[in-house]
Amino acid sequence: MEENKQQEQEIIDETEEQQEREILEEEYSDAEISVEQLEQLRKENEQINNRLLRLQADYDNFRRRTMQEKEADRKYRSQSLIEELIPVLDNFERAFQIEVEGEAAQKFAEGMKMVHDQFKAALDKEGVETIPAEGEPFDPHLHQAVMQVEDDNYESNVVVEELQKGYRLKDRVIRPAMVKVNQ
Predict the structure, then answer these.
(1) What's the pLDDT tens digit per position in 17-42?
(2) How far apart (Å, rounded) are the C-alpha atoms in residues 130 and 165?
(3) pTM exceeding 0.85
(4) Do the beta carbons of residue 130 and residue 166 sit within 8 Å?
(5) Which terminal residue of the chain has fewer beta carbons within 10 Å of its beta carbon, N or C?
(6) Beta strands 177-182 and 143-149, pairing class
(7) Residue 37: predicted pLDDT
């Protein structure tokens, strides 16, 4: 009897297993994927990965460009102020070309020279520098030629005289030097 019960139980277990297999096969038979479907899924996956890589590259480029713009803003933040102050510096230098007479006028000129030097030092601290001109080879990026002359003392295409000083802020030209150039 026990043997019969055991055999019956084995038969029941096998039947249940078979039924479970059939149920699973029915459930997953719809999940079977053809080779074409698998290939299409791979292509879609590749397209998604490519889009992700492009988005990451675009984001990296955007971040780098933003950092460069911020750096340029910091580097040239004072450019507009300097452009406004350069004519003041020109006027100081024109004023120093006038001969002064008398002790009071001399002391006044000395005081103005001190203000000029302090003003120039502040501009130097910001990175403003004078563009060298006289005796230098003509460079259209740094010099604005307003006249051409013939002078045997200078080689061809060399600046003979500076008519107005030029200035640059770090590596950017704020105002080119106005010059006479030897032919």
Answers:
(1) 777 767 656 655 555 667 788 888 88
(2) 7
(3) no
(4) yes
(5) N
(6) parallel
(7) 83
